[in-house]
Amino acid sequence: MKALVATKFGDTDVLKLEEVEKPQLGADDLLIEVHATAMNPVDTKARKHGLGGLRVPPFVLGFDVSGVVRESGSNAAAHFKVGDEVFGLVSLFRNGANAEFVAADYRTMAKKPASVSHIQAAALPIALLTAWDGIYDRLQVKSGETVLIHAGGGGVGHIAIQLAKLKGAKVITTASSNASIELVKSLGADIVINHKQEDFAKKVLELTNNNGVEAIFDCVGGPVFAKSLDCIAPGGRIATIVEGSDANPSEKLFFKNASLHYVFIGAPLMYNLHPELQGKVLSEAAKLAEQGKLKAHVSQVLTLEQLAEAHKLQESGTVTGKIGIKVLNN
Amino acid sequence: MKALVATKFGDTDVLKLEEVEKPQLGADDLLIEVHATAMNPVDTKARKHGLGGLRVPPFVLGFDVSGVVRESGSNAAAHFKVGDEVFGLVSLFRNGANAEFVAADYRTMAKKPASVSHIQAAALPIALLTAWDGIYDRLQVKSGETVLIHAGGGGVGHIAIQLAKLKGAKVITTASSNASIELVKSLGADIVINHKQEDFAKKVLELTNNNGVEAIFDCVGGPVFAKSLDCIAPGGRIATIVEGSDANPSEKLFFKNASLHYVFIGAPLMYNLHPELQGKVLSEAAKLAEQGKLKAHVSQVLTLEQLAEAHKLQESGTVTGKIGIKVLNN
Question: What's the whole-model pTM score?
Answer without folding.
Answer: 0.94
